[in-house]
Specification:
The chain is mainly alpha-helical and 87 residues long. The protein contains five helices and two strands. Helix 2 crosses helix 4.
Length: 87
């Protein structure tokens, strides 16, 4: 299942990530986030996907998979995307 990138829940997830790691506003910070997620969650989220989530992609992709949202939710200690949305 895919979720629209501009949904309020995804905006809240981005905000939660930035509360933990600081503002994500450069390619270097996206690259660092990619590494941090992989180190903590032992799963890979591509920098291209992170660019889409933060609105820095030149592609017109407007959705992201629930699997990616699960990984990022675990990164912010929510356990899963479903748990994150329930809080």
């Amino acid at each position: 299942m895919s979720i629209l990138i501009d949904s309020p829940q995804i905006k809240a997830l981005r905000k939660e990530v930035e509360m933990r790691v600081g503002m994500i506003n450069t390619h270097d910070k996206l690259s660092k986030l990619e590494t941090m997620i992989e180190e903590k969650c032992k799963e890979h989220v591509s920098i291209t996907t992170l660019q889409r989530l933060w609105g820095y992609s030149t592609r017109n992709a407007s959705k992201v998979s629930e699997r990616v949202l699960d990984i990022i939710s675990r990164f912010v200690n929510a356990g899963s995307w479903e748990n994150f949305c329930a809080t």
